Amino acid sequence: MSGPSDDQLDFAPDYDSPVPYMQRTREYYAAIGYTTPYRWAHYVDAPFQPLKKPLAQSRVTIVTTAAQYDPTKGDQGPGAAYNGSAKFYKVYDDDTSKQHDLRISHIGYDRKHTTATDSGTWFPLPQLLKARASGRIGEVAPRFFGAPTNRSHRVTIDVDAPDILARCLADKVDVAVIVPNCPVCHQTSALVARHLEANGIGTVVMGCAKDIVEYAAAPRFLFSDFPLGNSAGKPHDLESQALTLELALRLLESAPGAHTTMQSPLRWSEDASWKLDYNNVSQMSPEELARRRAEFDKQKEIARSNRAA
């Protein structure tokens, strides 16, 4: 005797769950010929820094993996192909009192399901300034910080995270909102968050790759079940962006301890089939995989040249 169907029970399809980015990444690189699996950062315990003062009295900064636009570095516009020339390898900072043109062409966001036409989806400075104006936070720190997306855990842990910490301490930062974009960005952000929290600065990671951030045991994580590149909300949807930041601030206030995840109630769309596409080798032909291998090798050479420069 058969039981009730999924339709009768109103079940969601199996694929309508957080995208397994670590698994997809391993399978993808194996399929294009890189058979040594990447070792994702993994921790069980996490440091945790409770807020030292109410958010309405706190100085808040942003840590981003987006890059400053440089017109000499090729196409970085909306929908641009992956552009390794635009990648940066050292921490940078800039003035939060000014407008900025930050872009994500240098990283592997979901180019099929988002066009990168609205920087508000990956750089929530406008929303943070509104939060200051309304009294939700005390101050926006004088600088925000750019975190290099580095596959080397050691460089992130030993070089980049301490550099960001030193700059935060110089600016008397109380809280950091950390916003990744690509899979490795999410790992970088979790490692930076851990370092800041271990040294007295509260953090929240706003991201879309749940498996990666939780595997690395970020202290606080706001999960938005959106395509990569939209950690700060939906494009051209200010209500979505405002709510996403507000949820991150609430998590800073309410997390009972380390390794706390809050999921945004927002959905990208009613059709969740977008989750089937990102780096899914089962949907790629041998010709497409060969093309991607050639492009990956090309970008590796560009990155090697940029590091040496």
From TrEMBL:
Residues 290-309 are annotated as: Disordered. This is Glycine reductase. The lineage of its organism: Bacteria, Pseudomonadati, Pseudomonadota, Alphaproteobacteria, Hyphomicrobiales.
